[in-house]
Amino acid sequence: MSTATRGRYSWTVVVPLVALVVLAFSWGRYPAPLVAALIAVPLIGAVLAAVHHAEVVAHRVGEPFGSLVLAVAVTVIEVALILTLMISGGASTYARDTVFAAVMISANGIVGISLLVGALRHHLANFNPEGTGSALATVITLASLTLVLPRFTTGAPGAEFTGAQLAFAAVASLALYGLFVFTQTVRHRDFFLPVEPDRPGPHDDDGDGHADPPSTRDALVSLGLLVVALVAVVGLAKVESPSIEHGVEAAGFPAASVGVVIALLVLLPESIAAVRAAARDDVQISFNLAYGSAMASIGLTIPTIAVATIFIDDPLDLGLAPLQIVLLAVTAVVSVLTVVPGRSKPLNGGVHLVLLAAFVFLSLQP
């Protein structure tokens, strides 16, 4: 079989198409547990294929645009799943639980495993503290504005924003996210490029040891397959969502666990790509992916949900519970201490992973 034929029929091409066919046959149905388990196979395959095609596109456009492509792609999945659950009459806290879980998984899970892999393989994990610090500050501000303040405002009962407050939070989040993207991709792009281990500054574009970028044609094909894979992931996750909810309920776990499952699913592509980058000593790319995901999860999801509430007459609880606020505060402090030096030991990765474990455990056993 020729190289062209192998490329044409590789699993990264076949799996998204198969997942789309499975979606067509399963859409609008409520599969039995065994069937739902079988549907999970093409769902996971579509996620992995999305990782591959997003990385091809990312390699073509270069950093930090590549990290932005993947961050926005997975946020599309997250927004679609949240809206699907809200429309189907899910809990009023699904948006909050999913966004908060995405922040914790990104800031502790993706960062932690990337630091651990990078530092163990290369003695120290090196990154640019200027760019990473800006990203972290933006994430903390967005999380505080949209997830913490609703717990303390008095205009609406419980942990809700009033309509005006929600509109302000949505506009402010979108504006701040847009400002960060401009900073990352235009104004101070060099702060978000991988650094040499022994010398601050970006890699030499001609001597970084990476493969040549794919052709424009290959990148466009991957972009199209990325869209197909994302459609399949969103659709199959919608088909699987009743089984996920019933499984969580049968296990006796709180409703917040559904948000954790959704966040774990949508962040799987980011996690795989971040670990791969850390393994080749590009921890800065891992940070771009982690904080970019957390940022997009808030800066794009909250405005979309705010618009959706105009058409969905359901309460929207965004304010975190006291336990969640404590976990977010500890994560912020630890993250600052991790980012400031510009390099990290395996211990820092372990600390973040323990925080992630605490978050997951306490989500199941609050």
Automatic annotation (TrEMBL):
Residues 34-185, 222-364 form the Sodium/calcium exchanger membrane region domain. The keyword Cytoplasm does not apply. One of its GO terms (molecular function) is sodium:proton antiporter activity. This is Ionic transporter y4hA. It is found in: Membrane. The chain crosses the membrane at residues 9-28, 34-53, 65-87, 99-120, 132-152, 164-182, 219-239, 251-268, 289-312, 318-340, 347-364. Pfam families: Na_Ca_ex (PF01699). It is a multi-pass membrane protein. One of its GO terms (cellular component) is plasma membrane. Keywords: Membrane, Transmembrane, Transmembrane helix. Residues 193-214 are annotated as: Disordered. It comes from Nocardioides anomalus. Residues 193-211 have a biased composition (Basic and acidic residues).
